[in-house]
Each structure stands twice: as structure tokens, then as C-alpha cells.
Design a protein that fits this description.
10 helices; alpha+beta; five-stranded mixed sheet
């Protein structure tokens, strides 16, 4: 497997002295703050720069052995338009060939930078006005950073790990209620070359709102980066789902007392949480992290949120950058806009992948994406903020989204992370599938047992013998198992021609089967999920939950996978009765199996398909 190649580059956002002389630099973020209604002074900027507090754009590119590349750029600005992202993507593609949908821009959402977006009349004078020369400079520097990173790639090893941070809190939390939930995850991607640490990407979900004074600052994000760069290479901060999540200890957005000290303390505490992932106390560095190996890919989709008025629905891009193969992969899910933090636990739990990072503020930042709780209470995140982002009715009132934004976003994430099915060849009259070694096994409607290689398109099936009245098929350690219409469970060796089946016990009403690590699993026509030991004779099945109208069953990523209702669903193998979670489309399936983390299915029109999980 070819080693991944990684490049990293940074550009600092510089300000012309004339911009300050002409009083063109105002800070966004606090709509009515009196001290924000005065243009930033160059002397204040110099003070922050002398303290090491710079606005920066940092890019990382990752390329696989097939020369597929994904790029992530992190920007110390507060917001972003789709037009800026489109321009950056187009220019990078011209210079590098990286496809536009493989490029993601994530803004830190610092409230101490000039706006990149025209925010409209709801902001105090000058605060919401985009100074075009600043925006154009940020756009150009972003292109420069990505191109430079791409031009300076080197073989590297990538590691993913996860920790927690208590440095943020849900500012709308009410104890014991759904809105009390919060995204406390700290996700870390660490890159090492033969020379040592190259880069560390770290993600947390906290509003950078410490700096109320009229001075330019990267806020705590910059502090954390500087701390990490003492040891762990170039650091990139990625903003997560921070809508409604503020720094712990902040009393008022507009209270400047001790704000710089608190900001530094906060950044250092976050950096400490990242280091706990990179170098756990009492353990070898990187010992708790997963090395990412395999290819890179990217997919994206756009969903639309209807307003409660008759205005056109508002777009939200959902983009997935994938690094590595099954079990050693990382799904970076970049979502536009400010997603309220209470949605993160549900989204994480819905996905079947081992390592998923949820980022907000990607590629466009023009509104909140509130949960139904926030839409229902019609407060700032669910309603009033729309006016500040310019999303207003014909009468000028804030125009909230229709309920269901969280559901629409989750569906967008499932779509963006779905690799889809690839056709492998014919599979006529097949009603049950299993996989073992390098082969697929199938039972047919005319009572035959077939076999073919699991790889390659249009490979011929070969006959292995008989398989009478089969309704479910599974394979484990070189043994095939089948359930029949007569309610019996049988087994035989997978290898060999026309071998006899041996009776193992009963299997009434079974409609689908699979196996994993010595255990058989079966779904029944009465919507029950069973399990039993695969080796013993005449042992009872144990009820472990519900499996409604299942037509196919498999295991992948140490999870149960089923198909029903035109979709793929997953649940954990153990733990008794659990809800199934939908994660992908699967129309007209009649049989399903898995080989490792690769799924195979047969559709009603007699075609064999495959996809990864």
C-alpha cells in the first residue's frame, strides 16, 4: 500500500497601513458593541502581532498512491460566502488539478476579524460592511496556501485520535433536557514524516468570542496553535459544530476586563487537551491513535432549508473528505454555516464509521442551522440571528427556517458519506448470499449452490452442489450455514463439490442470516433478531431485538447491517435490543452479505453489486 503524501503551508493575513489611515478596518461579530463601531487602529494591531497573535490561513493537502488529493484550508476569519469558496476552488483547480469538491475551507469564526460578508442594515454602522480589498487578499492568500502545500508534499504517516475538552459549554443548556447535549469532542489528526512531526489538525466546537476590544485577534484558536507548534509541527484549528457553544468562564461578550489573559488561559487549556490525545500520560506517544492507510476521496451534496416565509430555500453544502480505507479511515464532514452544538451527539451516533469529525463553518457561513428546539423557542439561534445574516422577510423581519433542519442536515451527511454501489455482474435467480475467504457463495431459487470470486466484474458463477429451499445463508471459518423453508439449520464445508449438508438444529421463519466470530445471527419473518452459537448442535436461538421486514443481513465494522425498506441500516452486535440506524440507500435488494468491510448484494433484477462501509 503506497504511503500517503502530505503538504502543509501557511500565509499570514497582512493589513496595509493605508487601510487604517482611511479607517476601513472594522470588526464583525458583535452587532451593537459601541467599541466595535470605531475603526481598528494600526497601533492596536501591532500590539497583538507583537504578542504573536496573527490572523493566519493554513492549508494541508493529502495525496494517495493514485494521485487523488484532498485539501483543507483553515482561515482566521468569521464568515464566508459561497462565491469566495467557488473562486478559491476554481483558482486552485487551475493551478493544481485538485477537483473543486475535494477542497474544503473552514473558518475559525473569530469575532475579532473584519467581515468577509455583507451583513446588512441590522448591524451598527460599518460593522457589517465587507471591505473588498481585505476579502480579496484573504481569497488570494488562501489559494497561495493550498497551492504551496500541494507543491511541497512529502511521504508521511497520518494518525487519528480523539479526546474531550471541558473548555466550552452550551450557552442555552437547561439541565436534563435535549438542549443540554453538547459536542465536547477534540479530534486530532497528526502527521509525521521521517524527520518528525509535520502537522497537527485539531478540532473543537467553541465560539472564539473572548476578544471584545476593537483589536484584531485569532482568539484562543491562535493561542492553542502556538502552544502545539512548540512540539507537534504546524497546527491547524478546525471549528466544529459550535453554534450555541461558548468558552467556559466568559461572563459577557462585551466585558474587556482580563479578556486577553482569559483568552490565553483558554487556548492553553485546549492545547493541553490535544496533547492528551497525542501523548497520553504514562503511555507511548500516539499509542492511542489509529494510523490512516489507503486512498483518499471526497464527495459533497447540497441540501436546502425552507424558510417559514415564501422566500427561496437556503442552501447548505455538506462535504466529506475521506482519508484511508475501512477500519483505518477518517471521515471529515464539513458543513456550511453554524450548526447548533446539541445536534452533534445524534449525528455521531447515526454514522457507521469509526472516525468521523464534524466541522461547521465550511465553505459558506451565512446563518445558523438550528435544531428544532431552537426553532421552537424562537430565540437568537432559531430566529433573531437570521436578521443579522440578512435572511429577512419582505417586511424586514427575521425569517426562521421551517422545523426539520437537523433532519435535513443528517440526511445530507448520510448522502455525502455514501460511496454508493458498484455493479459487479449477473446474479440471476439468487435468493441468499454469503462470503468466505476470497469467494461469494449463493443459493438459488432452483436449489443450487454457486460460487464466484468476490473481485472482478462479470465473473462466472460455478456450481458447487445443491442447496434446497434455502432462505438464509451465512459463512464462518470455512463453513457454510443455511436456513431452509422447513425451519431447519444446516452446515457444510465451503470448499468441495456437492458435499452433504449436516443438520445443526432449528431455524423457524428465518428470512436472512449472517455470522461473526463464532456466532450466527438471523432475522425472522416475525421481525425478531436472533443469535446462537455456530458450532453446537440443537442449541436454542436467543432473541436480541427487533429486525422488521429484513431481506438481507451482514456484518461489517463489527456491526450488524441489514437491508429493509429500500435502505441499509446498522446496529451494534451486542447490547440486546437496540434501534437500527439508517445510513445508505439500497433499493430492491433480495440478498446481502459482507467480506470484511465490503458489502455485496443482489437486486431483484438479477445483478450483483458491491460497496464499502
Amino acid at each position: 500500500m503506497a504511503q500517503l503524501k502530505v503538504g502543509v503551508a501557511r500565509r499570514e493575513i497582512r493589513f496595509d497601513s493605508q487601510w487604517f489611515t482611511d479607517q476601513k478596518i472594522f470588526l464583525w461579530g458583535f452587532a451593537y458593541a459601541e467599541n466595535r463601531q470605531t475603526a481598528v487602529k494600526e497601533a492596536d494591531l501591532r500590539t497583538r502581532m507583537e504578542a504573536g497573535d496573527h490572523l493566519q490561513i493554513t492549508a494541508i493537502t493529502v495525496t494517495d498512491g493514485a494521485n487523488n488529493t484532498v485539501a483543507l484550508a483553515t482561515l482566521d476569519v468569521g464568515n464566508l460566502t459561497a462565491e469566495t469558496t467557488e473562486w478559491v476552488r476554481r483558482e486552485v483547480t487551475k493551478q493544481t488539478g485538485i477537483p473543486g469538491d475535494h477542497i474544503c475551507l473552514n473558518v475559525s469564526h473569530t469575532h475579532a476579524a473584519p467581515t468577509m460578508v455583507e451583513l446588512g442594515p441590522y448591524w451598527a454602522s460599518s460593522i457589517g460592511v465587507c471591505f473588498a480589498p481585505f476579502r480579496e487578499r484573504v481569497e488570494r492568500l488562501t489559494v497561495e496556501a493550498i497551492v504551496a502545500a500541494f507543491s511541497d508534499r512529502t511521504p508521511a504517516d497520518l494518525y487519528f485520535g480523539r479526546g474531550m475538552t471541558e473548555t466550552g459549554y452550551n450557552r442555552r443548556a437547561a439541565a436534563g433536557t435535549v438542549q443540554d447535549s453538547q459536542d465536547k469532542l477534540v479530534d486530532v489528526l497528526h502527521v509525521r514524516t521521517s524527520d518528525g512531526p509535520l502537522a497537527t489538525v485539531f478540532r473543537a466546537s467553541i465560539h472564539p468570542v473572548w476578544v471584545a476590544a476593537p483589536t484584531i485577534s485569532a482568539d484562543f484558536c491562535g493561542v492553542a496553535r502556538r502552544e502545539l507548534e512548540k512540539t507537534y509541527g504546524t497546527a491547524l484549528f478546525v471549528q466544529g459544530w459550535a453554534g450555541s457553544c461558548d468558552p467556559v468562564g466568559i461572563d459577557s461578550y462585551l466585558d474587556a476586563a482580563d479578556e486577553m489573559k482569559k483568552m490565553v488561559d483558554h487556548g492553553q487549556a485546549l492545547a493541553d487537551d490535544v496533547v492528551k490525545v497525542l501523548a497520553p500520560t504514562g503511555a507511548e506517544p500516539l499509542s492511542g491513535m489509529t494510523r490512516l492507510q489507503g486512498n483518499v476521496a471526497a464527495r459533497s451534496t447540497t441540501i436546502f432549508h425552507p424558510f417559514q416565509s415564501d422566500r427561496p430555500a437556503f442552501p447548505q453544502e455538506v462535504q466529506a473528505l475521506i482519508i484511508g480505507g475501512p477500519r483505518s479511515d477518517w471521515h471529515f464532514v464539513g458543513c456550511s454555516h453554524e450548526v447548533t452544538t446539541d445536534q452533534a451527539p445524534r449525528a455521531q451516533a447515526a454514522l457507521p464509521f469509526d472516525h468521523v469529525t464534524l466541522a461547521g463553518y465550511c465553505n459558506q457561513q451565512r446563518c445558523y442551522i438550528p435544531s428544532d428546539y431552537f426553532i421552537g423557542v424562537a430565540g437568537y439561534e432559531g430566529k433573531d440571528s437570521q436578521a443579522f445574516y440578512g435572511n429577512v422577510t419582505s417586511s424586514g423581519a427575521a425569517d426562521p427556517f421551517e422545523p426539520g433542519a437537523a433532519d435535513r442536515l443528517l440526511q445530507g451527511i448520510l448522502t455525502a458519506t455514501d460511496p454508493g454501489w458498484t455493479q459487479l455482474g449477473p446474479a440471476e435467480q439468487i435468493i441468499a448470499l454469503a462470503a468466505a475467504g476470497e469467494h461469494l457463495y449463493a443459493a438459488t431459487t432452483n436449489d443450487k449452490l454457486l460460487r464466484r470470486s468476490a473481485t472482478g466484474a462479470s465473473v462466472e458463477w460455478e456450481a458447487l452442489g445443491h442447496a434446497e429451499h434455502v432462505v438464509g445463508l451465512a459463512a464462518l471459518d470455512g463453513t457454510l450455514f443455511c436456513a431452509t423453508r422447513e425451519g431447519k439449520l444446516w452446515s457444510r464445508a465451503a470448499a468441495g463439490l456437492d458435499l452433504p449438508w449436516q443438520l445443526l438444529g432449528h431455524a423457524e421463519q428465518v428470512v436472512a442470516m449472517t455470522a461473526f466470530q463464532g456466532t450466527l445471527y438471523a432475522a425472522t419473518g416475525s421481525s425478531i433478531l436472533w443469535q446462537r452459537d455456530a458450532t453446537q448442535v440443537n442449541v436454542p436461538w436467543t432473541d436480541i431485538g427487533q429486525a422488521e421486514q429484513v431481506v438481507g443481513l451482514a456484518t461489517a465494522r463489527e456491526r450488524l447491517i441489514c437491508t429493509t425498506g429500500g435502505a441499509l441500516w446498522w446496529r451494534d452486535l451486542d447490547g440486546g435490543d437496540q434501534p437500527w440506524k439508517r445510513f445508505a440507500a439500497a433499493a430492491d435488494l433480495v440478498a446481502l452479505c459482507s467480506l470484511g468491510d465490503q458489502l455485496y448484494c443482489v437486486t431483484a433484477n438479477g445483478v450483483l453489486w458491491t460497496r464499502s462501509v
